[in-house]
């Protein structure tokens, strides 16, 4: 039960609030599958990106972890998006119940809704994105007058590139001006083609697209640190179906464990699932190289999220934002405890 969309879902209707604080634990996550115990099965509308940085989502879908965890409580209907910015639009329009997103789209959803749209319930990945440029370019100064691609304005890779350039004395504008010209480009594969054909000097892209640019002769100027992928749920869905959310988190934890215990099979499974959205699988070597630069972890890396917010604010892409309350890690810590892993905090 999947469908692919490459266009942003239009709308700005904000979702209603209703959730506990990030330090609390959900009391309905043990056996019941709904807050009433007698509710009809629900369809969880799940968003993700067709990136290897979202491998845990791809694997949970491919291997049936979501199906197993939810049982009779419901099913997952997955939709692949071109960028986290599109996912934010869909979340705010009431089109998604849960989503794997980057940190900046999660922050944007939080701010635009006044802290009422989403909660971060788990981490999924850190690393796995790079600034890649043409061979011979070794500094930010050499990018003046050059065009560079990012997935979308204000997304995680866009903020990382603009901030790095700013720190190195190279200006950018949201309209593509400044010293270096930033071109939001989608899908990500289009940026790879533009790089290969010489239309752009480089870009900031997530795996596997940064790896593809390197294989096309590119050089990595910066391997972007910090959180890359988070699992968020809408506060309205969490309030209505806390046990279903707990099941989603259990599946996420199971996928991460599978990646760590059987990386070769995890790569194959992620690639196979990715092909259902993109139309064809990636080469095994490309997937393997992508996995090497990503750390798959359930820890949402709260310090990293704050850094991402501060960088976006400094660029004028985000108004100052208070992230207090953005996490709900009770279900995650229960799932981690159940499998003998250390708890995480916000």
Task: Bin the helical content.
Answer: 25-40%
Q: Assign the structural class, choosing from mainly alpha, mainly beta, alpha/beta, alpha+beta, or little secondary structure.
A: alpha/beta
3D shape: globular
Distance separating the two termini: 33 Å
Question: What layout of secondary structure does this protein have?
Answer:
Blueprint: E1 2-4, E2 42-49, H1 55-62, H2 65-70, E3 74-81, H3 84-92, E4 98-101, H4 103-112, E5 118-127, E6 129-134, E7 147-150, H5 156-167, E8 181-184, H6 188-197, E9 202-206, H7 209-215, E10 218-223, E11 227-234, H8 235-240, H9 242-261, H10 263-278, H11 284-292, E12 294-296, H12 302-314, H13 330-338
Structure, described:
The protein is α/β, with parallel strands linked by helices. It is 39% helix and 20% strand. The protein contains 13 helices and twelve strands. Strands 1-3-2-4-11-5-12 form a seven-stranded mixed sheet, sandwiched between helices. A five-stranded mixed sheet has the order 8-7-9-6-10, sandwiched between helices. Helix 1 packs across helix 9 and helix 1 (55-62) packs across helix 10. It is globular, with a radius of gyration of 19 Å.
């Amino acid at each position: 039960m999947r469908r692919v969309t490459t266009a942003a879902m239009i709308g700005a209707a904000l979702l209603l609030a209703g959730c506990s604080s990030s330090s609390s634990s959900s009391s309905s996550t043990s056996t019941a599958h709904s807050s009433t115990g007698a509710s009809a099965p629900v369809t969880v509308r799940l968003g993700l990106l067709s990136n290897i940085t979202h491998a845990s989502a791809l694997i949970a879908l491919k291997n049936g972890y979501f199906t197993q965890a939810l049982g009779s409580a419901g099913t997952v209907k997955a939709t692949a998006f071109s960028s986290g910015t599109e996912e934010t639009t869909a979340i705010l329009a009431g089109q998604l119940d849960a989503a794997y997103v980057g940190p900046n789209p999660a922050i944007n959803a939080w701010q635009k809704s006044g802290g009422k749209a989403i909660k971060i319930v788990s981490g999924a990945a850190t690393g796995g994105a790079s600034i890649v440029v043409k061979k011979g370019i070794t500094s930010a100064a050499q990018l003046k007058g050059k065009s560079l691609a990012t997935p979308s304005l204000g997304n995680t890779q866009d903020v990382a590139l603009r901030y790095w350039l700013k720190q190195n004395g190279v200006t950018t504008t949201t309209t593509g001006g400044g010293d270096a010209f930033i071109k939001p480009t989608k899908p990500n594969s289009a940026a790879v083609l533009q790089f290969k054909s010489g239309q752009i000097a480089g870009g900031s892209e997530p795996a596997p697209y940064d790896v593809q640019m390197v294989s096309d002769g590119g050089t990595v100027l910066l391997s972007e640190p910090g959180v890359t992928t988070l699992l968020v749920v809408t506060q309205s869905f969490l309030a209505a179906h806390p046990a279903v959310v707990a099941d989603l988190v259990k599946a996420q934890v199971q996928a991460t464990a599978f990646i760590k215990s059987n990386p070769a099979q995890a790569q194959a499974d992620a690639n196979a699932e990715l092909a259902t959205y993109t139309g064809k699988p990636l080469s095994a070597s490309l997937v393997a190289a992508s996995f090497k630069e990503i750390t798959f972890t359930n820890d949402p890396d709260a310090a990293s999220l704050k850094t991402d917010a501060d960088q976006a604010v400094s660029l004028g892409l985000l108004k100052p934002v208070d992230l207090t309350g953005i996490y709900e890690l009770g279900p995650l810590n229960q799932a981690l405890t159940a499998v003998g892993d250390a708890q995480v905090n916000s």
